[in-house]
Amino acid sequence: MSQPIFGQKPARPAVQNFRRIPEIQRRLDLWAEWRLNQGGGGGGGGSVLGYLVDVAAGRRVDGDADSPRSIVPVDSIECSITDDAVMALPDELRKAVKAWHCASSGTLDEIARELGVVRGTLHRRLCHADIRIREWLRARRKAVS
Predict the structure, then answer these.
(1) Cα separation, 75 vs 61, whole angstroms
(2) What span, in angstroms and rounded, lies between the C-alpha atoms of 116 and 121?
(3) pLDDT (tens digit per residue) in 95-134
(4) How far apart, in whole angstroms, are the C-alpha atoms of residue 130 and residue 19?
């Protein structure tokens, strides 16, 4: 990094320097789906198995007749563990994770605006949350084994 000109602040690192961790991001996406279905909005009383039984029996469980949904079964145990990891995050990181992963729609800019931060701050918080969750899961695995 070059030296700043006298009287200028050094440049801050660009947002591109922060990257999400793909396996944690996928885990959080499944966690969000599980979390949204736990409220009982669909059939099966929030149970993935119950939901699949309803679908197999031909009962409508959510959506409208013209919009077929793909079913992504999730492992409730893994999602519960992920939920514990998310709850262990500092408040600002937890809010960022919930706002982004549990949103039904919206861009990074829109979600950031809802949280009262800029896009780069939301992205950075999500990246930091990924790191913390990965560390939390590693510590948990060590403690269990």
Answers:
(1) 19
(2) 10
(3) 999 999 999 888 999 999 999 999 999 999 999 999 999 9
(4) 9
